[in-house]
Amino acid sequence: MSTTIKIENKDGSVKRAIMQQIDHTKLTIAAATVAAELFHAEVVAKQLTISAKNAAAIVLRAGSQAAGLSVISSYYDELASKTITLARSINITAVQLSMVSVTEWRTSAVVTQVERARDMMDDPESARTVAQLGVKVEAELEHLSDGFQVLLKELYEQLDEVQRNMRAIDVIAVTSRLEAQQTGEFKEGLMQMANSIQDQASEIKNHVAKSVSLLNAYT
Amino acid sequence: MLSRVIYQGDHQWIMFGRDKDKPEKIIDSNQFMIVSGDEAILLDPGGIELFAPMLAAALKFVPIENIKTLFASHQDPDIISSLGLWDQVLVDATIHCSWLWDGFIRHFGMSSIKFEPIRDEGGSVRVGDVDLQFIPAHYLHSSGNFNVYDPKAKILFSGDVGACLEAPEAPLEVGDFNEHIPKMKLFHQRWMPSNEAKINWVRRVRALDIDMMVPQHGRIFVGESVNQFLNWFENLDVGIAVSQ
To answer: For residue B113, which of B32, B41, B12, B34 has the smallest C-alpha distance?
Structure first.
């Protein structure tokens, strides 16, 4: 569709409309991919809560030897639960962003078609009417674009919050390993648990980093 | 949008639907994706308003470049009005649909997707390692209409046959068949125009080995409810608008 338009219309305004259309195609896919990435991150975050609960169980068994770890294991749990909620929320925002992007994409196609119609008109009065219609649709497009920016900002903030949570888990995992040294027979289990929690956090970070990189590429 | 794996063997069937966030006056529809290896086909990918949630839901299972094939059971907007948008995001994709609708569904916008007409007698397509059969279902309800049969998974995608309109919170499967009848009855009597076509379809579908029949709207039929549906449908008088 965009190729046909390019051939028939060579003025600057139509070229801009074509560019918008191409960007929205990629943006729609990017937002949908972010939703999918965060769906996978949520699955890992659920595993993370299980790991946090397992860590808490070992800490409980270790008793006074692991007293320093009891607060840490509840932090894990809290951060993992927050991440699940955030991942769900990001999923919703990303789908909304994808929907607004589709609407913008469709509306920009209307702008292009209205411009084509105006170019085809011989009667100046009718051309003026169509031009007014074009102004109205462009205003709608601007409105959609504002809404898109709000959602995009929200999405970046949510993604950033997940990354902050994961960085906090990283720091706690290092402290956990140090504390685990003091736990005698429970040391091995707690070290493994800290490693596993850090691996899961790293996996979530990768999903988020991929999402941010996708959004950066198309916005 | 809800997504659910309904078959997991050496390939997957995934059902999408029950979208509680869809615009209120748009009817709910089921979309299906079959994934085999690094290829996927979308069956009746849906209307334009569902495109974004459908894309997001599909990408949970496969990357976009793996969606190479679309199938449209017929030409209705709830089936394929999203075509113009898929056309912009899929690369090197093909749509399979009745030859009858070649010049019609292009009105939804189609410049890069290739149209592969299905002849009236039916046909087949290979997706990854799976061979899918296009089963003629003409006049049920559209004049050029196909179902998709997967002999390996023993699933029949029956399009509008077996369909009913449900609330987003409704169960996915038909439970008590008799309780389900009132939800389907008027839909089939009014939408399906031909008793002859219906009987012909029932006869051919009975010859298939089916574990699951999945329509484009409403609940899916599993096990015995497939036979119960065929028996009920066989005896239902359809095309009632002209006789009333």
So the answer is: B41
